[in-house]
Amino acid sequence: MTAAVCRARFAWLRTRGLRLIFFFAYAMLMLTIFEQGRIIQAQQMLIRQLYPDSVALTKARLHRR
After folding, report:
1. pLDDT tens digit string along 26-47?
2. Between the CA of residue 10 and those of 1, 22, 56, what are the distances in Å?
3. Helix-strand-coil percent breakdown of the chain, rounded to 5?
4. Buried-exposed string 40-61: b where 16+ CB fall within 10 A, e elsewhere
5. Whole-prediction pTM value?
6. Separation between Cα atoms, residue 33 and residue 26, nearest integer Å
């Protein structure tokens, strides 16, 4: 390889490499945010399913006293 070809490859990497890294980081951030939203929704659904059981347990404890 000649020095000019080597410099041209490094110039491409310097100009576009940082953009590629930022694009990849942004994509990973979006995936993380999407996954967090799914987890929060699943937790909300679980809380809604468990709430009636909690109310019934509290009523049973109060009746024992």
Report:
1. 999 999 999 999 999 999 999 9
2. 13, 18, 68
3. 95, 0, 5
4. eeeeeeeeeeeeeeeeeeeeee
5. 0.62
6. 11
Q: What is the pLDDT of residue 11?
A: 76
The owner of tokens 């070809």 is: 5
- Considering just the CA atoms, what is the radius of gyration of the chain in Å? 28
Helices (H) and strands (E) in the chain, counts: 1, 0
Helix (H, G, I), strand (E, B), or coil: what is residue 13? helix
d(CA 9, CA 30): 30
